[in-house]
């Protein structure tokens, strides 16, 4: 346990988002389920707010708290892969913990795209990455979870035990307990990846975006693509002008030729100013880590949308040209494929049929910029509202103080799913011990 005044307190109280400046009374680095149950009981009995920290990368910064207790799962990081392609992952593991255990066996769990992100928060909110079109969200590949609940009980959620709880964990966040172990389904990876970034300077953006939109209209599931606008950080040695990256990854281990042909179609439609290929999964999974440094000040917003026509392109390009500072980026994820085939009511995750998902990830180092940068992200999201297909992803949302919890949860899940989540919350956490999250209100 680390308390104020102890060596290491400054680090222990910090999370990825540098805006979050909280001073917990104690950060408890738990070793097992008994520790977790003891901390929950202590917080409950002393009426102290309790924060649960997985990888600490929650954009809204709920992994720490003023004058409360943090359950830090950072020592629960074991990863075991079995012969049936099931992967058991400790509740505090990062994406790189999982990738470095599965990749040598030619396998991957669908996770996100920055290796230091925590599996816990990522999965419980959804989990979008390079395998989403191929195999669905991280949450869709969650086979089971072991939890310690608000009463300290050990509960397993799977298709055969507490199936409704498993439903809730596939997008309902950390509302129902502390997950000590996730069990995922893994998938075979190509031995040599077919992955590439096509890079375009600003004058080429309109033709590149139009060509990408056309290219995405008819792609098989194994082709995943993300369109990114960034001002490259110095480490990438790519100059200081804003760039557009059309990044693509082909996942089918048995048919590399089709992936190469599809990439060649895009290359020919809009020849890049430069390109970079990657053949190794763990390198590809950490290629953009440099964009998500811990300690940057962050505020994110997201929108799902279906049509990438001239009106949307105008908003995107206007905002991308305006954004000249290092840190902030704009991603458009191409959705569809296996993600879209999961029935809407099979998980709490919203808007399965949306063709694209925009993530505006505001990040900057200087506190003096907090107000203007936050306003810029909000303004961008506001301009996208008319095009929205109704989906909000909790993991791509920054902290908005003073928002009504009911309204916020309804905006994400819609009334029907929210009713189901509220019923689960009443069953597993009626006192709302786990309230530092995208909260499902009980009352
Ligand atoms: C740099 C960066 C890159 C990102 N890239 C992606 C991406 O590619 N795809 C994507 O989908 N998302 C991405 N995200 C968003 C990410 O999924 C969320 O921020 C997520 O909450 C991070 O999880 P964490 O465990 O690291 O965070 P934490 O702050 O530790 O946890 C967030 C919340 O999750 C809950 N929680 C975490 N672990 C547990 C557990 N074991 N049991 C119970 N509750 C738990 C808690 O309520 C906690 O408040 C990224 C975020 C950052 C900062």
TrEMBL record:
One matching Pfam family: BBE
Protein name (record): FAD-binding oxidoreductase
Keyword Flavoprotein: yes
Family: Belongs to the oxygen-dependent FAD-linked oxidoreductase family.
Keyword Flavoprotein attached: yes
Keyword terms: FAD, Flavoprotein, Oxidoreductase
Classification via SUPFAM superfamilies: FAD-binding/transporter-associated domain-like, FAD-linked oxidases, C-terminal domain
Domain FAD-binding PCMH-type residue range list: 20-189
The organism of origin for this protein: Streptomonospora nanhaiensis
Cofactor(s) the protein requires to work: FAD
InterPro entries referenced in this protein's UniProt entry, alphabetically: BBE, FAD-bd_PCMH, FAD-bd_PCMH-like_sf, FAD-bd_PCMH_sub1, FAD-bd_PCMH_sub2, FAD-linked_Oxase-like_C, FAD-linked_Oxidoreductase, Oxid_FAD_bind_N
């Amino acid at each position: 346990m680390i308390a104020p005044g102890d060596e290491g307190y400054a680090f222990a109280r910090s999370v990825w988002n540098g805006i979050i400046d909280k001073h917990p009374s104690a950060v408890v680095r738990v070793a097992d389920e008994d520790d977790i149950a003891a901390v929950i009981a202590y917080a409950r009995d002393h009426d102290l707010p309790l924060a649960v920290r997985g990888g600490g990368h929650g954009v809204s910064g709920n992994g720490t708290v003023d004058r409360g207790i943090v359950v830090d799962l950072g020592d629960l990081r074991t990863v075991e892969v079995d012969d049936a392609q099931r992967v058991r992952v400790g509740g505090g593991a990062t994406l790189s913990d999982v990738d470095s255990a599965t990749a040598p066996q030619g396998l991957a769990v669908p996770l996100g795209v920055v290796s230091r992100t925590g599996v816990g928060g990522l999965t419980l909110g959804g989990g979008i990455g390079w395998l989403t079109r191929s195999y669905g969200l991280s949450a869709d590949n969650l086979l089971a979870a072991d939890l310690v609940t608000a009463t300290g009980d050990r509960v397993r959620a799977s298709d055969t035990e507490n199936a409704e709880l498993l439903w809730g964990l596939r997008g309902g966040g950390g509302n129902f307990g502390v997950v000590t172990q996730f069990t995922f389904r893994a998938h075979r990876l190509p031995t040599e990846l077919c992955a590439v970034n096509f890079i375009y300077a600003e004058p080429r953006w309109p033709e590149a975006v139009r060509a990408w939109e056309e290219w995405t209209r008819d792609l098989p599931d194994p082709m995943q693509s993300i369109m990114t606008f960034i001002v490259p950080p110095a480490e990438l040695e790519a100059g200081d002008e804003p760039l557009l990256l059309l990044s693509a990854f082909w996942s089918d281990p048995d048919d590399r030729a089709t992936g190469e042909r599809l990439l060649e179609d895009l290359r020919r439609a809009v020849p890049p100013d430069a390109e970079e290929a990657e053949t190794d999964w763990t390198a590809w999974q950490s290629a953009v880590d440099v964009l998500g440094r811990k300690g940057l000040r962050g505020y994110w917003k997201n929108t799902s949308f279906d049509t990438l026509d001239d009106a949307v392109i105008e908003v995107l390009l206007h905002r991308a040209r305006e954004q000249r500072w290092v840190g902030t980026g704009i991603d458009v994820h191409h959705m569809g494929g296996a993600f879209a085939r999961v029935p809407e009511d099979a998980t709490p995750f919203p808007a399965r049929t949306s063709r694209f998902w925009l993530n505006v990830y505001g990040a900057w180092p200087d506190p003096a910029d907090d107000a203007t940068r936050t306003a810029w992200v909000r303004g961008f999201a506001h301009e996208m509202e008319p095009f929205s297909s109704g989906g909000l992803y909790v993991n791509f949302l920054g902290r908005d103080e003073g928002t009504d919890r009911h309204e916020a949860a309804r905006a994400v899940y819609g009334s029907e799913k929210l009713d189901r989540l509220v019923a689960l919350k009443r069953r597993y956490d009626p006192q709302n011990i786990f309230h530092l999250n995208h909260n499902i209100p009980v009352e």
